[in-house]
Amino acid sequence: MEARRKELTSRYRERKITGGVYLLKNTQGGKSLLEATTDMRGSKNRFDFSQKTNSCANLKLQQDWEKYGAGAFTFEVLEEHVKSESQTMKEFEADIAVLKELWFEKFSGEKAVIGS
Q1: Which of 47, 61, 102, 112 lies 20 to 30 Å from 73 when distance is taken between CA atoms?
Q2: What is the pLDDT of residue 83?
Q3: What's the pLDDT at 111?
Q4: Could you tell me which residues come within 8 angstroms of residue 15 by beta carbon, excluding any fewer than 6 positions away?
Q5: SS3 label, residue 97
Q6: Could you tell me what percentage of the chain is helix, strand and coil, using 3-state DSSP and rounding each to the nearest 5?
Q7: pLDDT in tens, 33-47
Q8: Is the distance from CB of 31 to CB of 112 less than 8 angstroms?
Q9: Which residues pair with 26 in a beta bridge?
């Protein structure tokens, strides 16, 4: 039992940390929310859980979520970035913030995309 626990702990520490930028898109209302995260898998899991339980986890989407329902929203990964072994978490977070700024500039002409 202890060996299994050590193996799982070791695997967890050695996993690749993937962050990035994603879009929460309202397919009915036309608006999208640009978000960034240092844990893309966790963000996707939260979104999936929100859809299954029909409970909006993002206050900026609450009104549209109630109006159109959970099925009107999609989770679209725009760009992923894997944390390098030499990066500190603070450096990784800074890289993700820069990515978000770059994507926000790409969408700057579109009124339907908002940043958080």
Answers
A1: 102
A2: 95
A3: 59
A4: none
A5: helix
A6: 50, 25, 25
A7: 999 999 999 999 999
A8: yes
A9: 73
pTM of the model: 0.82
**What is the tens place of the pLDDT at every residue in 68-99?**
999 999 999 999 999 998 999 999 999 999 99
Give the span between the Cα atoms of 111 and 116, in whole angstroms.
14
CATH topology of domain 17-115: GIY-YIG endonuclease (3.40.1440)
d(CA 13, CA 68): 40
Tokens representing 110 are: 């579109």
Confirm if 96 and 20 have CB atoms less than 8 A apart: yes
User: Looking at the predicted structure, is the pLDDT value of residue 115 above 70?
Assistant: no
Q: Which residues pair with 81 in a beta bridge?
A: 19
Q: CA dihedral in degrees (47, 57, 14, 102; nearest 10)?
A: 80
- Domain parsing of the chain, residue ranges: 17-115
